[in-house]
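ingest -> validate -> predict -> emit
validate: passed (alphabet ok, no gaps, 149 aa)
predict: started
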Amino acid sequence: MSLQNHLQQQLERLNEMVTLLRSEQSLLGEGKIDGERLTELAQRKQALFAELEQSEISRRNAQQKLGYSMNREGAEQAAADAGCEPVWQDLIATTEQVANLNVLNGQLIQHRLQHNQQMLNILRDAAGSSLYGPDGQSKKSIPRVNSKA
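emit:
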């Protein structure tokens, strides 16, 4: 497979990852989380990341066999020599987009987890403290609103 075709396949996988991450972001932004759909997305993301990793290993091995250095400059030179610099640049830009979306989604998940923990703490506190004593009378004074205020 030519480097151009290989990079194009990687780019297609990365674009699919962008689509998955945007779908995940949309689901995380909804009031009620669709756990089943998020699980499906997570499984597809995991499979896609594995495909991308294998593809990147193949690309690096080919780069090394062709005598290019194993760094970004070597990859750029290989792409330039193969006449596929535009695809390489798209690949780099899309990789950065995937990384940014992944970080943002992680932050959204963290925010949700914190919110859920706060709600659990409120419920735990409420369950642990009864408003009424065994005699049916209020244990705590409930602040009243003064209608003249």
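The mean pLDDT is 87.
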